[in-house]
Each structure stands twice: as structure tokens, then as C-alpha cells.
Amino acid sequence: MYTTEAFGNFSVFRETSVSMAATNYLRSPVRIRPMSRSILSSKNLLWNHGMKCQCSSSSSTSSSGVDEKSVFSLTSSSKYEVDYLGEKTKGDLNVKVEHLEAFGIDSQATLKGPIEEVARVEAEEAEDLLRDLGIPTPFSSRQSPRGIFCSRTLNLRSISAIGYDMDYTLMHYNVIAWEGRAYDYCMENLKKVGFPVDGLAFDPDLVIRGLVIDKEKGNLVKPDRFGYVKRAMHGTKMLSNRAVSEMYGRELVDLRKESRWEFLNTLFSVSEAVAYMQMVDRLDDGTIAAQLGPLDYKGLYKAVGRALFRAHVEGQLKSEIMSKPELFVTPDPELPLALLDQKEAGKKLLLITNSDYHYTDKMMQHSFNRFLPNDMGWRDLFDIVIVSARKPEFFQMSHPMYEVVTGEGLMRPCFKAKTGGLYSGGSAQMVENSLNIHGDEILYVGDHIYTDVSQSKVHQRWRTALICRELEEEFSALIHSRGHRASLVELINQKEVVGDLFNQLRLASQRRTKGRPAQTLAATNLDDHELSESMQKLLIVMQRLDQKIAPMLEADGELFNKRWGFLSRAGFWDKSHLMRQIEKYADIYTSRVSNFLHYTPFMYFRSQEQTLAHDSYSYYCSRFNGSAVDDEVDFML
């Protein structure tokens, strides 16, 4: 199966030197063995016909490619099974026995022998071939900052349609440029109504995605996966660990309480959060004029939100971006090619964006058209385009749909979308009905955890992918922090051992004062001076370890962000609340859409084993024979 999938994407790889090397590899007589002759024949057949193939989206057969229908059968929507991982087999290829027999190949004898041995040999050959072709294996792709990471197993072959958000998904903005201008317009609007903004400047390092605004206290907090606050900032000043404990030690961040908590779901939240935290400082120091009325932190948040909303509604910001898109958009030449692969593999591609028609058309032309082959335009990639979608309501309820019928954006009502159409509004249910594709046959890709990922999954049961560009920077920061984190783990482990001995001696001392024997005979026989001296020594060691560990913990993650640490972690050991949201709602996540180009449209993404608190003990025990395990268990008990 690896071999067939590896060749499903050859229209992207056309390097002659690699092609010749792979051809020689495939034709080498040393590689031909009775158990793999049929697979090698398929390889040669695909290779001889496939390198110049430019597949058509309307058929699985092209003028110069392999006739898939004559070689394989495709599992249909009506005849699919559910595999052992719970994924549908719809879209899987199956070998046609009659085709093998036409080439004189005995399908029963082709892969004789234990499957473990057959699979081992074929997997080794597949890895060799992928290496010769310069194509990364699925395992090596996962070890890359541009890997696609899987939270819930996803079979792309069973996906019939892929929908995309546009902003920060199909198009990545320069955050400093885009959010910086949004911040500027927000501050101008605040100044017009009397807020003191002089001397303030946009600081993109002040916040990161995944933080939560506490509108009651004027704080920005970073909770862990359980909702416990690990770091906090009031205004633009970080709070001490003690202040965080006193303020949030008895409460959890609950995102369902929208009147208090505001989750920074997307990079679009950066400008608003920076402006709000800076204005909290101005409110605290009394420089906000009294004539603006009695303002608390919650009222201040509303004022900042109105100022930023006005910047978007008045259109000045988007007009500026449309006039000079090269200043705001980071181009990605690989992205249109990734979508082209998906389209040619038979996927229906959808663009579903909240942006209006004129902005969408201008920005997509700039980002896509120059990278597409054969004079294709961006509209040629998508079966259905929906602008002004009003997400998240698009997934939650039904709104009227209008067809955009002219280049000026004139519209007329309609009730069903057609292939190639451009529409405004509507709903996810209308899309499903128009395509006759439903639920988990659709994958939706977006950058906003709530608007894109959470709501499409909760209300429509669509499969989901989250785009988080910061993953690349975090991956790099984690790599460069390995030495620091390893040293920190060693110190923490040392303190745990020293601390355990101290606690045992403390218990022995406690029992001695009550006239009871210690835990063991040796501990009971310790004299009082020896016991006290040992405890004092251990206590000093632990105190010195704390002095060393504390600043190292504070510094952990500063390569990503000096204030907040890593995006995906809260504290040294645990996941951040953001990471919990990603795992809960995103089946897969990655840094950019073009990362799909490093896989194939037929990829089977498998989730990793999830570790549990007791896994290390289970693994430790499994390394011993039965008697040793029993002895270890007896000791622990």
C-alpha cells in the first residue's frame, strides 16, 4: 500500500536525475523476488506511464497516465467498510485479480509467506525507494516543523470534500504588518473619543495566541489544560507566582463564561489584546479622563473592541491592504500546488470565508494566480466559493444564500449551490445538500479554533484541521531548548530522590517521638544525632536545588516568548489550554496548508499513542520476567 500511495503524487516531482535513479532501482534484477514480483510490476507500470502524468480532476485516467480503473477497483460510498481504527474505507483502492492474471501473475502465490516477513521486506524497499526519490517518509515528516500532526486518526481517502478558510489559512499575513496596522487604526479611533494613547506602540511580543483575557480583573492569563492559571499579566506587567496563586488559586478559567473570559483564538486577536493591556495601564494610573464615564476593566475592554470593530467596518484597513498586498501577505508558492493535488485526486474543494467578495478576489488573485500552471486562476481550483459566510453562524443555523453574478458583486437569491459557483452567505447544511456529501466526508481547514474548527465539528461533525503558523517557531525553540530542559529534568529528579529520603527520615523522626519503630530496622537503629544531621544536610541540598531550579523554570520557553513561554505548554510538564482545545477539536493540525504537499491526498493519518501517568511504571514492569515483576510489585506495596 505504501508503494501505491507514494506514486499518487508524482505530478509534483519531475526531477530527471532522480527519475533515472528510481527507474534503475525498480528495474534492478536484484530486487525481484517471487514474493514481490507483482508489486514490482505495478511499480514499473506506474513509473513508465506516470512521470509525465498531469491528472484531470474529472477522471482518474489521463492521456498519458495509468488507467486506474483497469488496474484497481475503488471502494464506493455505498460499499465501504469500517477498518480496525474506526475509519471508513471509502476511496481505498483494491487490486483487480483479473488484471494480475492477464499478466500471468498468480494472485494467491504472489505474497506467500508470513505477512510479518512480507511486510518487513516491502517496508524496507519502500523506505529505500522513498529515499532515492527524495521523498520524506511519514515518520520523518512528523519530526519536521512543517509536519502534519494527528490528534484523531484521519483517512484522507475517505474525504470527498475539503473546505478552506482564507485569512491566516490559505493566506498568511505578516503579523507585524497586518496586526500593527489594525492596532494603529484601533488607537486612532480610541483617541478620537478621548482616550490617552500618545506614546503607545504596537508590541507583538506582549501576547501570544491561546492566552485568555480576564475582563473583570484587567489581566491576561495562561491556563493549563485543566483551567488552572500558570502565568498572568496585569496591564503590561507580569505577576509573581505568589500573586497568581492568591488571585486564581481557588478558581478555574471557564471559557463558557463569555462575560468574563475572552480566549485569543487566532492571530487576529493580537492587536486587540495588545491595545487592551496597554489601556489597562492607563486606567490604573488615572490618565483616562473622567468625562469618559466610570470605567471598569470590563467596560474598557468593550471600548477597545468597539474601536477595533470600527476599523474593520469602515473598510480603511482592508482598503490599504488591497492597495498594497505585497506589504501584508507572505507568499507561499507551494500552497496552490498542494490544492491542485487534492483537486486532481477527486476532492471537491470549497472556499468558505467571512471576508467579502472584493477583498477575497483581490487577495486570492495576488496569492494564487502567479503560482498556478497553464493560466489557471484561483477560482479554477474551487468547486464552490462562499464569501461573507458569517461563521460561526454558518455552521450553527441557516441563512439565505445569494449567488454573486457579476464582477462588481451584484447578487441574486438562490437555494442550491452549483459547481463553479460563487456565493454569499448560506449555511453548511446548504453546502452538504448541494454536493450530496455529509458529515465526516468533509474536512474543514481553518485557523480559528472556535469559528472554524470547534463549530464545524460540534454542529456538522465535519473532520477538522487547524492551521497554526507559530508551530514552526515553537518547534525550533523546543529543539534549541533540549539541553536546558534536560538539565532541568536532571535537577528535578535529583531533588525528588533527595526529597524522598528526607521525607522518610522525617517520618522516622516523627514515629520516634511517639515511641513507635521507624519504617525499617536500619532506620529505627539510627541515633538521634545522626538522624538530625542527615535531615539538616538534605534540607540544605533541597533549598539550594530550589534556588537553581526556580529561575530555570522561569526561563523555560523564553526562546519562543520571554513572558509566556511555549505556545503548547503551561508550566514545565503540562499542556496549555490552547493545546487542549486543539486536541479536542482538531483532528489534525499543522503550520500551513502547503504542508499537505509533503504528503499525498491519499494519506492515512494515524494518531500517536497517548501516554498516561501510570504508563512509565507499566513499561518498566514489562521489561522484567514474571518473578522480577512480582518482586518489584511486592516492594512497592
From TrEMBL:
Membrane-spanning segments: none
Q: Which InterPro entries match?
A: HAD-like_sf, HAD-SF_hydro_IG_5-nucl, HAD_sf
Q: What keywords sit in the KW lines?
A: Hydrolase, Magnesium, Metal-binding
Per the UniProt record, one Pfam family is 5_nucleotid
**One term of GO molecular function:** 5'-nucleotidase activity
| Family per record | Belongs to the 5'(3')-deoxyribonucleotidase family.
Alphabetized NCBIfam families for the sequence? HAD-IG-Ncltidse
Protein name stated in the entry: 5'-nucleotidase domain-containing protein 4-like
Q: What is the lineage of its organism?
A: Eukaryota, Viridiplantae, Streptophyta, Embryophyta, Tracheophyta
